[in-house]
Amino acid sequence: MADPSFDVVSKVDRQEVDNALNQAAKELSQRFDFRGTDTSISWAGEEAITLESGTEERLKAAVDVFKEKLIKRNISLKAFEVGEPAPSGKIYKVTGKILQGIASDKAKEISKTIRDEKLKGVQAQIQGDQLRVSGKKKDDLQAVIALLKSKDFGIALQFTNYR
């Protein structure tokens, strides 16, 4: 039988993000403090989100509303990267991006962290935008998961295919 293994991934459920966006749009249209500010939120492509408002402070408040909805849907804020508000004519705009996958430099950093722990028989292999960690004992793999959860790599990590 093959050694036990698991995958370290950084994926976000697009449907959950879409639900959070729709909830935020509904709240922005109904809240009293957003009336008359032309504040809106919408998809701008596959992984980008655009927020627009008449004033910069309402735009920042709209970003906070969206982040609140992401948290309620169990989506890590590390998976959402937002830029700085910029004036565009009479309105202010900001673009946010949903981050998917583990970049190669982050994957190398995670792999190095696992190697530095010096657990016997545990290997980490980079496979595209994810990391496969395998080892002789399941206890060692659970120790690796605990180690990775305790460290902050600046991205949202999930552990899948544990077998």
Features:
4 helices, Alpha-Beta Plaits, 37% helix, four-stranded antiparallel beta sheet, five-stranded antiparallel beta sheet, alpha+beta, 163 residues, 2 domains
Strand content: 25-35%
CATH architecture field of the largest domain? 2-Layer Sandwich
Number of strands: 9
- Estimate the mean pLDDT confidence: 88
What is the overall number of helices? 4
Q: In CATH terms, what is the fold-level topology of the largest domain?
A: Alpha-Beta Plaits
Helix content: 25-40%
CATH superfamily of the largest domain, by name, is YajQ-like, domain 2
Count the domains: 2
The shape, in one word, is elongated
Tell me the series of helices and strands, N- to C-terminal. EHEEHEEEHEEHE
CATH first level of the largest domain: Alpha Beta
CA radius of gyration: 20 Å
How far apart are the termini? Answer: 11 Å
Sheet with the most strands, sense and barrel status: 5 strands, antiparallel
Unreliable residue runs = none
Structural class: alpha+beta
Q: Your description of this structure?
A:
Keywords: Nucleotide-binding. It comes from Pseudonocardia halophobica. This is Nucleotide-binding protein GCM10017577_23630. The structure is a single chain. This protein is an alpha+beta fold. The protein folds into two domains: 5-11 and 102-160, Alpha-Beta Plaits (2-Layer Sandwich), CATH 3.30.70.860; 14-98, 2-Layer Sandwich (Alpha-Beta Plaits). The chain is built from four helices and nine strands, in the order βαββαβββαββαβ. The strands form two sheets. Strands 2, 3, 4, 5 and 6 form a five-stranded antiparallel β-sheet that branches. The model has no long low-confidence stretch (mean pLDDT 88).
